Amino acid sequence: MTRLVAVATASLLAFSLGACTSGTTGGGAATACNVGITMPTRSLERWINDGEQLQSKLKAAGCTVDLQYADNKVDQQISQIQNQIAGGAKILVIASIDGTALGPVLAEAAKQSIKVIAYDRLINGSPNVDYYATFDNYKVGNLQGTFLKEQLKLDSATTPINFEPFAGSPDDNNAKFFFSGAWDVLLPYVTKGTLVVPSGKAPKSNDEWTTIGIQGWASDKSQAEMDNRLSSFYSGGKKVQAVLSPNDSLAIGIEASLKSAGYKVGSDWPLITGQDGDKANVKAILAGEQSMTVWKDTRKLGDRVFTMIQQIVKGEKVEVNDEKSYNNGVKVVPSYLIEPEVVTKDLVQSKLIDSGFLKASDVGL
Fold it and tell me: What single DSSP character describes residue 199?
């Protein structure tokens, strides 16, 4: 009887999955659930979590899944995608390292009618990107800029405030949106002289953001850059009072630099922004070394991509909520944007711990 129940259950599952490949509601032909996922690196905590969570949900739904990490090497990511195409993938989920380098391999995918979902990083210069799932990246930066504006009371400040801005990796399309969102808030105060940038590294417009970009979002590179700024432009008792860091990995490097330079929490420590809610940075927030992080609940992103994949598999219309913001140079890519949130020290418990995003033990609580 047990064996018969097992067979019946397997048959029902097979029928259920098979039913996902029949009929459409305007989305086109149904697709087999064979998914290739390529993430950029294991060196950042969030990409490990993103990849493994999506893989787990897909496998639980009976999909075939190949999950790869590319060690921040573009050629390696291209090779991984080629292998996934050769292995029969019908849907590709790609968090690109270089959003401009994937055109040829995506052309290969298009020849085989493979659907492509850009995951949190827009793929540029290719018509063969079907969907984009991400957070509202402009709002991420806008939240950072607004936080600094409010905490520094820029509208009523009577003395200049020493400020250093950083931007993300020049090869990451999202970095432009992060910076633009923040710079639209902060540049007017730089222009008026309320915010002073002693290093001179203050882009005159959003389009010049790459001049202060940190390649690969690398903590050691942001630390070296901050070391250089502090040693070169902050002599004679001059102190930096605020730092725009677009994400947590850069913030960690900036904070290490400040410690080496003798800055102390509670006396001369500057305001520092961040993004992602990484464990090390949440610890830094609790210790007063980082002022905030913009939390993007990547579980919501994974859930959305999972839903997109289900809709593709069933031949349904894929739900998006933005069809105008993300032009990759060839087409406007239909996108689904998820709202980010600010987390400060007093919100760590309610936002990050109580939601299950982090464990209290992960951050020393």
Answer: T
CA–CA separation, 155 vs 149, rounded Å?
Answer: 8
Place of tokens 């020393």: 364
Packing angle, helices 219-233 and 248-260, rounded to 10: 40
C-alpha distance from residue 268 to each of 111, 240, 247, 271 (Å) = 59, 8, 22, 10
- Residue 37's DSSP bridge partners are 67, 93
Q: Rg of the chain over CA atoms, in angstroms?
A: 23
For the chain, the average pLDDT equals 92
The one-character DSSP state at 363 is G
User: Measured over all CA atoms, what is the biggest interatomic distance in the chain, rounded to whole angstroms?
Assistant: 84
Calculate mean pLDDT across residues 225-254. 97
Integer distance in angstroms from the first to the last C-alpha of the chain? Answer: 50
Using DSSP bridges, classify how beta strands 335-338 and 131-135 pair: parallel, antiparallel or unpaired. Answer: parallel
The answer to whether the CB of 237 falls within 8 A of the CB of 192 is: no
Nearest-angstrom CA–CA distance, 125 and 364: 44
In what order do the strands lie in the sheet containing 91-94? 64-69, 34-39, 91-94, 115-119, 131-135, 335-338
- For residues 312 and 109, is the Cβ–Cβ distance under 8 A? no
Dist CA 247 CA 214 (whole Å)? 11
Task: Transcribe 158-177 into DSSP letters.
Answer: -S-EEEEE-B--TT-HHHHH
What φ, ψ does residue 177 adopt, rounded to 5°?
-70, -40
Q: Tell the residue number behind the tokens 């509208």, with chain if given.
A: 155
Q: Say whether pLDDT at 31 is over 70.
A: yes
What percentage of the chain exceeds 70 in pLDDT?
A: 92
DSSP collapsed to 3 states, 218-282: CHHHHHHHHHHHHHHHCCCCCCCCEEECCCHHHHHHHHHHHHHCCCCCCCCCCEECCECCCHHHH
